[in-house]
Amino acid sequence: MKKIVVASSGFKDVFDPIETAEMLRKVVQQAFPDAAVTAVPMADGGEWSTEVLSGHLGLPKVAVSGVIDPRGMLRTAEYVLLDPQTAFIAASAIVRLPPELSAHKNPLHLTSYGYGQLIRHAIAHGCTKIYLGMGGTSTVDGGIGMAQALGMPFIYDDPAIAAKRYLTGGDLPHILGVALHPALVEKYKDVSVEVLCDSGVNLHQLYVVTKLKVSDEFAEQREQIVALLNAGLLQYSARISNYLAAADSRRSVDIHALDRQQSVGNSGGMILSLLPLFDVRLSKGVEFFYERLGVRQLIQDADLVITGEGRLEESSLLQKTPTGISRLAQQHQKPVLYLVGDIDETYRQQLEAPIARNMPPAFAESGISAVLSCHPLYANVPADYEQRMAYYREQTPQILQQLLAKWGRGSF
């Protein structure tokens, strides 16, 4: 009997990873009724990571009230306890704005303050090991809001900035440096922090992701917004490097090349503001979930691996979950099907057919054997957001099942 492993993240805004796993399990089983199909909901430290750990593995959540979201509004947010002294805290749990709040998605005005509140809460309640899940966020503030919540003092070129309740991306150019008190260093010295990155993007590559974080309501200013944020991040990166060098701080990350350091661009450069406080270890988030969910062994024993996402776009190949899965399958010489709902214009011309077998070099290098996409087969897609999501929920499983059955004839 053939063995098929389905390991996919969510189909963005349509199916979360747990729903995606069940949807794809049914679809694949219908297409290949004689195969043994195992489905695992995947995450990589970014969006839906909390839900996968708590919902799929049954780990307890801690709810914290009065947490500031990116707009400065108070809400309740959650993190996961892996054990009584170990927390997993996803940035997306608090610094992600859902699609219905797109009118607020201008990172110049958004803050990561709430993430610092969650970290502070976990430490205050006895956690000495903290995994920080990076990805799926709306902010691009270099983590200055988060650091502010953790008590890290800054030096500003404008005294008025110091009076702000929370810092945002637009405040990055006003930061001249860090003035860390030894008592604060002492407070956090026994806390081990491991950052689980959902991509390998560095600060110079961040413009790709930043453009996606600026909603269409700000389309006319998008290029200016991105330019201001990227310039601010690079300046702030230099300030952090200078501080760490002057303080003779030993760090696992190369403090002299922070702008080129792989993964430092995650979650709008938030890692930058962790470095003065903690000796941060950077890891691939998807590998953390491989181990927790037993994915390595499943792939090793499989005949076919299926992964995918709702929209294939330029950032997808930056070590995101699906390509992480495909590269792992590649190590074991397993064929990989990449299932998507839609394809960004960047790749649509190369992958215009519903079933694309001739892979562009970047896809082939990532271990992807074929891409099956619904976008050519969607018809009369509603303009209204809610109606569009309902349409995708109804149509996507049917289309994927048809494509899988067609691909399977003579291929598997």
Number of domains: 2
Low-confidence stretches: none
Whole-angstrom Rg: 21 Å
CATH fold label of the largest domain: Glycerate kinase, domain 2
Helix content: 25-40%
Q: DSSP strand (E) fraction?
A: 15-25%
The CATH fourth-level homologous superfamily of the largest domain? Glycerate kinase, domain 2
Q: Give the total of beta strands.
A: 14
Number of helices: 15
CATH class of the largest domain: Alpha Beta
Strand order of the largest sheet: 2-1-11-12-14-13
Write structural notes for this entry.
This protein has 412 residues and is an alpha/beta fold. It has two domains: 149 residues, Glycerate kinase, domain 1 (Rossmann fold), CATH 3.40.50.10350; 238 residues, Glycerate kinase, domain 2. The protein is built from 15 helices and 14 strands. It has a six-stranded mixed β-sheet with strand order 2-1-11-12-14-13, with helices on both faces. Strands 3-4-5-6-9-10 form a six-stranded mixed β-sheet, with helices on both faces. The mean pLDDT is 93.
In terms of topology, how is this protein built?
Elements lengths: L2 E6 L8 H15 L4 E6 L7 H9 L3 E8 L5 E10 L2 E5 L22 H12 L4 E5 L10 H6 L4 E3 L2 H4 L12 E4 L3 H7 L3 E6 L8 H8 L8 H25 L19 H4 L11 E4 H9 L1 H6 L3 E9 L8 H11 L4 E8 L1 H4 L6 E2 L4 H5 L4 E4 L11 H24 L4
Parallel strand pairs: 1-2, 1-11, 5-6, 6-9, 9-10, 11-12, 12-14
Antiparallel strand pairs: 3-4, 4-5, 7-8, 13-14
